[in-house]
Specification:
heterodimer; A: alpha/beta; ABC transporter transmembrane region fold; Rossmann fold; six-stranded mixed β-sheet; 23 helices; 10 strands; about 65% helix; elongated; B: alpha/beta; four-stranded antiparallel β-sheet; ATP binding (chain B)
Chain lengths: ~625, ~650
Amino acid sequence: MSTDTTDTTAGRTGRGRAAPLAAAPAPGGAPGPQPGLSRAQDSAIGTVRRGFGLSPEFRAGLGVTLVFAVIATLGRVLVPIAVQQAVDRGIATGTPDTGFVIAMVLVCAVGVVVTSVCAYQMNVRLYRATESGLATLRRKAFRHIHDLSVLTQNTERKGALVSRVTSDVDQVSSFMQSGGLMLIISIGQLLIATVLMAVYSWQLTLVVWVCFLPLMLAVRYFQRWLSGAYLVVRERAGDMLGAISETVVGASVIRAHGTEERTSERIDATVADMRRAQVRAQRLSAFTFPTTEMVAAITNASVVVVGVLLGVDGDISPGGLVAFLFLVTLFVAPLAAATEVLNEAQNAIAGWRRVLGVLDTVPDIADPADAGVSLPRGPIRVEFRGVGYAYPGGPPVLHGVDEAIEPGTRVAVVGETGSGKTTFAKLLTRMMDPVEGRVLVDGTDLREVRFDNLRSRIVMVPQEGFLFDSTLRENLEFGRPGATDDELRSALTELGLADWLDGLAHGLDTPVGERGESLSAGERQLVALARAYLADPDLLVLDEATSAVDPATEVRLQRAIEGLTRGRTTVSIAHRLSTAQAADEVIVFDRGRVVQRGPHRELAGRPGVYAALNASWTRQQQL
Amino acid sequence: MAGEWREQMADGAGAARTPTRGRVFTRGLYVLWTAIRTEPGPFGLAMFGAVLHATVTVGSASVLGYITSEIILPSLRAGDTTAAALWTAAGLLLGVGVLKATGLAFRRLFAGLMQYRMQAHYRRRVSHTFLRLPLAWHHRHPTGQLLSNAGSDVEAAWQPLAPLPMAIGTAYMLVIAAASMLITDLVLALVGFLVFPAIALLNYVYQHRLSPLATRAQALRARVSEVAHESFDGALVVKTLGREDAETERFTAAASRLRDAQIKVGRVRGMFDPVMEALPNLGVLVVLLVGVLRIEGGAMTPGELVQFAFLFTLLAFPIRSFGWILGDLPRAVVGWDRMQAVLTARGSTAYGTARLPAGQAPGGVAVTAEGVTFGYEDGYRDASGADRDGISAGDLGGGPDPGEGGTGPRTTVLHGVDLAIPPGRTVAIVGPTGAGKSTLASLLLRLVDPDSGTLRYDGTDLRELAKGEISRTAALVPQTTFVFDDTVRENIALGAPATDGEIWTALRLAHADAFVRALPDGLDSRLGERGTSLSGGQRQRIALARALVRRPRLLVLDDATSAVDPQVEEHILTGLRRADLAATVVVIAYRRSTIALADEVVYLEGGRVVATGTHDELTERVEGYRRLVTAYQRDEEQRAAEAAAGLRTEPTDVEESEAVA
């Protein structure tokens, strides 16, 4: 009588057919020797326990929910028992005990209603607890990712980081909302069904277990095959969407070089791979699921045969045998769902491990927070003492840098690509910590300065002026939250950008597009610079901040910044030596070392790295 | 669920609007019919499985009833049984099992096959359309939306195919069950006719209530991932300005909205499941009650009653498949519409048939522009920042329609630009930030078409040239380029038949050979998202090599060395000059050294050609040009003067009052 249960599974998975696509493309597989995020190594139970610890909401009111769950599970056996009783006490004898059947039906009906109410309560409580817990988990992971250093953020690809706070958490979600409880209920149901079956006939119970034991053992293998197959599907889906996204993101390159044909071949290949993987997974599931159906049929046949033989000897009543067949249904249902529940459990644990992996990654650039010090306002003095740096697993890129930058001075940092300029800037702003030596600001080790203080006093304008997909106004406000339009306007005016602003059709309301791409590269840099200027730092670090701006604007910005930052410390990294000419001092990097230092005029006249750079630059200007 | 691509898929599903109900149903059926027509084979086989399964399922109730009344009860009453009876029972039950398993396997396998094939067809069609549509179309549509067209929209459109055979099988099963109930007992059949429609109706109500909530939750999920994506993308900016707390707040707001939406979904779902389980159970109880009375009255046998009860439990579940289909249909229709919007998008680049004589051109092409005017649509999306704050129910209906042509207000970037570049000449286009230089570059390659005016190669209008003709003739090196997730070799060749020797030559000329050689696998090193990430300067050099390897007859360099340091830039420029390319070259530049490559300079300001001439002429004649190209020099001189005077005055340069753009 187990016939409807396989349908349950079929339907479930019919529903879940989107699952391979809805599931993660196994993120976190970033290759390479770099230090990625750690992966939590706890056992399955340990992972779940830690997961619960992170989201206290999961536990809130869990006791009451479990009570509802127990009642809901117990309620499931009401109807099979009712059928058995009706058959046994009335029908099979040929002279039905009508009064008894009516009373029983009424009692069971009330029972069914109570069960439903409890199940509803249980579901709602579970949803609330789960979703609240997951929102907390997302927030914690998100915050932690921002706390990680630039270095860690780069090693783990951005997409993988995003999936830590989205898909990985979602994987926990479906398990927590239904799977986890279904697992408990299923085991409960198996036990209850077994006990009830045993009440009717221990011999038949044994028959059922003998028939199902091989399936129970096989389910783990089925699950392993299936999850393996769906993992491949997810990977193929990732490849496919990656290929399709190239047609969108790289549209102009494809047009410009006329590589449409090659691109569409690549897409077709990944689409075909994806379909093949889907069909393969589907074939596996189409052959494993009917197995339950077959086992159920074998069980039913055995129960009928053995049951009749027992009944003939008077060991079981006709009603008892019919009821037993209904109970087998109850027994099969959780097994039919087991593959899926196990899969969900495995995914949830994998998801949790990845999120825990993020949270376990100790921020290598830690905020001393309340234990740290705050620097008083005013121009900042910077000192590098024996600073060396090497990217993890890589050769040293900076060696024994001993330099001091006096408060209120303007320093330019120059050197060839790969000479260590940008590393210097990142150490200066504590995007990274030195491997050896110390960076001191106003005599205090940079590592001891509280982040809220550090980030408001030392601001860097990075090379690529990343803008948020919003308006110009909101992007500028990012530098000074709550700034009025007048403040924003006057900042742009002070930087000499008033005319540019007036030239925009929508002024401060101009949408800048995804990553600011509605603006030209030069304009993005102007906004990024204004944004940093609005933050009003005491030490401003410009990393090629005006590389895409036209010379006249650049010179004017330079002049404006000089005026505006008078009394502050500025460090500019530049390819264009115009910046160096304007600086009080130039620090020249070559192969990770500071090789020269002094005013432009002085260095330009002395043979060396700077003179060579300057010669190139001058030649370019004179041509 | 998701992964890095998933959020992009989810995005845009948010813009799914729920069309009116009646139309959804008929249009949904049309979508399903399209699939059946396209894949009749798998559909037929899935239907065979579904019908087999349904028949046997209904039949199994009779088998069980038969076994109960003909084998179990007589044997137990008599206290004796025969081997034949037992074999019959076992054989019947096993036979039922085998047939049902077979039906199930067929139904699942071929329903899946059909669904996946349809997904694959439409993924290919949508992405091929992306390749066909002009860049202007691409500019109008956000990346996330296009990705969701090929991802989640395709998936949504074909989602109902999974339960379709089961639902048709169930409908068939219901008919048989109804008939068999009517034959067995009229009174009990009435109970069935009350309960089953109730289940179907409940399903419909459920899907109807759940669908908008689920769509909203889906949109909010996409939003959470958008916020995370953008925030991590801009992590450096967030960090440098110490805005982690504010960003966490922004993210938490999005996550909380998702949480609330999910809890609402949970309420509906949490109500539905118990009711769906209770209904057939109550039905069985009613059957028992009525059945006992009927047996008492001698109107039916115990076996028939068992069969009835069984039929009830049997049909309760498959009836849900109607609910799934009905629930999936609105999303399917929206997905289909969004797909169709791409597939039927107008404005695909029209190509002519003209060809440029390829062989006879040792030099480059002659390039002319006459009265070229071009404008961008004002921000392809709503300019309001409200989008950042959240999604209101109304927003779900919004979202740009992928199919519409650009008709919005436009900001004109170029006004009546005229150019005449003789073959083999090198022309520099110079102008302040935002003057329209890059736009002009796109026009020269026909990445976009002008709003008015004409561009020609060797006298042929670009619009009349055959497909592939322009990319065979011209190459653009943009300011920032896209690196494909592929090897260095493939990134340079991009499918062009280039030998390794030619690739190395191009790399050498682009001054990229040294760093490529230093990569672990040389030309075979993987770049892009899952490979080595390159610095801005390195990417520029890859882009340059990509262009050079094609030996273009028109080379357009759009500030292509801005991220390269001066010495390397000097080497590159010297190399290009020496290479004596047989090409017309257009360079967009600020720097004197780059301008020095040019025979002629076009000075652009505010989208207009202000002057054309040699560098010396323009320096002489054009104030704006002089200021621009001599900015560094004059700055230097002025600083020298200031230093000499021992002064450090505020800058008093005339440029103070000058416009940026």
